Each structure stands twice: as C-alpha cells, then as structure tokens.
What does this fold into?
Amino acid sequence: MGLLSSRTFRQIATGALSGIEEKRQDMRDRIDTYRERAVNKKNDIQKKYNEYFDEEKANINAFKTIATAAGEDYLPALNSFVGTDPSRLSVFDRMSPDDIRTELDKYKDVAPTDTGFIQAREEKLKLKEAELNQNLQDQVGLFKGTSSLFTRDIERRGEKDIKTEVGTLESQRLRGDFTAGAGLGLKTNLRLSEVQNNYSIYDNYYMDELNKIGEKTGNRVVNPQFQANVSQIDEQAQRLIDNGFGGTQIEAIAEIIEMMNNPSYKGTNLQFLNKASDASPILEKAEDAFNIALEERNISKMESVIKDLETRNRPDEVKIYTDRLEQFKKDEANLSAETIKERALTEGEPDVEDSKTPDFQVDKPGFRQEYKDVLPFGEWMDLSEDKVREIYNRLDEERGVKKSRALTTEGLSESEAEFVDKINTALGLS
It folds into this structure.
C-alpha cells in the first residue's frame, strides 16, 4: 500500500480532532447538567434538614416548657418518663404545673435514663445531618467514571467545580444548655391557715382517753390505728427543729404533713430534714453526747453520734469526732496494765453477772505469782475473769512474755471442748 498523500492525511487528522472536540463539548454539557441536578438536590436535602431541625427544636422546646413548669427537682423523673420518645410529651398538654408534678411523682423512683431527652435529640440531629450530607455527596459524584482519555481533565475540573458550588448542608445547632428553675406556682411556704388545717389533721390522729369504765379522763392519746403515722410525723418534725428550723413544734408538724400529703410541695423549711444549720441545736447535743460517751469509754455511742451527723450533712463535725474517736482507740490500746487495774477497782464492773462472784469464777485465769507486784492476790480476787485476763495479757505484752499455744479443741465434742477451754483459761492460754 502506498503512502497517504499529505492532503488525505490532513483530512483524516482534521476529522479525528473534530471528533475529540465534539466529545469534550459533550462532557462540558453533561457537567452542566449534573451541576444543575446537584444544586437542585442540595436544595431538596437542605429543605429536609431544615424541616427535621425545626421538628427537633419544637420537641426540645416542649420538653423545656414542661420542665420549667415542674421545676428542676422533677427533671430526672421527666427524663425517665419521656425517654427518647417525643410523643410522650403530649401527656402533659393543657396540664397545670401542679398536675404535671403530681403525674411525675409516679416516676420519681424510676431508674434514670443513660441519656437525657435533650441530649438524645441533639445526637439524633447529628446523625440525620451526617446521613443527608452523605446523600448529597453521592449525588455530586454521580457522573464520575464516565470520561475518556480525551475528556478526563474536563471531568476532574467539573467535579471540583460542582463540589465547590454545592458544598455541604447549612447545619444548625440545638441549644442544649438548660436550667429548669424552681418550678411554676410551686408552693415554698405555708400560710397561717394551712398550718392550722394541717395541724387539725394531726390532732385527729388523737382521741380522748377513757378509763376502765368508759369515762373520759381529760387526756388525749394517740389512736392506735394511727400510731405509725404519729411516730413518723413526730420524728421528722423534731428533726426539723434539731437541725435549725426556727418555727414552733406545731409549724414543724404542719410542714411534715404538707410534705406527706402534697408530694410536689418544696417548702424551704424542708431543707432542715437533711441538713443541719450552723446554729442548729443538734450540734450542741452531739457535742455533749460525744463527750459523755468519751468519758464512759463507750465506742458504740461515739460511733452513733458520728453516724447521726453524717445524716445531717455536717462533714466538718464528722471529721472532728472521727479523729477524736481514732485517737481514743489508740490511747486505749496503749494503756498500761496498772491503769487497767486501777480503773477496774475504782470504777467497778457493772457488767459482771451476779452469779459470777469472784469466789466462784471457775473460768478466771489462775493467780500468777510473778505479777503480784501489779495485781496482788486480794485485787485478783476482787476482779472479774475478763478483767484479770485483760490485765495479764497486757502484762505479758509489757514484759515480753511469749505465751504458749493454747490446746486445740478441733474434733472434740462440745463437752470435751468446754473442758479444754477451761484448762486453757486456767493456764492463761486462752
């Protein structure tokens, strides 16, 4: 085959170039079409997002409105009741604040949810935004991979331009910061008439005392069927007063009855149920009780005082008395045998059973001649077995005496074990 003529070659080349340019123009046109589609898709998705945002914003605002009406104390119960279901908010439509609180009182003991309602709506919106943005990006990349060798540069530029023009969704953020406040129409104190009415309820728990022949004695006594009610009211009313409530006994009783009959009542005086003020009578009582227990060397009473102060939210006093108790225990552990003996002889031993007179205390450790300088025979006779054992053990410690191991009672019958215990005691090994 002969070589192509220059004219023929020019014709072929011109045709080929013309075909390439036609393809490149087609790609430009397609990009314009995809750009328009992508922009329209962006507008549709943005509209869906805005509608979803408005819906979640309305849900949160409804929740905040109800929480504000009920008050901060009811927020956990409201979260537990609603969970993550906004439709449950409709239960409170057209309810008064008191009615809302009464309804939520039913859920105050329900375990709290891991995520609060507002937080759950915020997370839901973020997930929806991510989903819609992904849909948008999928639309932007629809024409990718449709280019040829001669149009690939146009495709790349077109994709970049479309992404720039379309961008991402214009997102919004829900306002999650929120404080419910004290609650609307919430009763925080009692009027004089309410104090009187509540005390009348309490007085009705009492009845006229009758003598054996059915005559009134002039005294008022608790009706047996209301004994538990009266005991609870009296205890809590006294706690109010002890913790610093400045009102009368009648006023304290009225506060407690209001709390029992009206669960939504958040009277300011009820704070004294769980926290004692700095000027509360209980602090002086606690100091006196602790000092008396210290003089009596009664550890259980000292611990009781500390535990009571813990329930009254007095951490400073708890720390002070705990430190004093620990120091007392250290001091007691380091008492000399002489001091133990002198205490026992001077103060007596009221805990000794009458049947266990010193002359007949068969379980008492035998008299130890080597310790007669501290505990002579006459004093040994006067002391109980427990005190003698304590003194001898302390003397062993002070003088570095190594005690022999006690005889084992393992595998023995009850009677045999009892006999071995007596031997150990007599030998000072128990």
Remarks:
- The first strand starts at residue 206 and ends at 210.
- Residues 350-359 have pLDDT under 50 and may be disordered.
- The first helix runs from residue 6 to 70.
- Residues 6-166 form one domain.
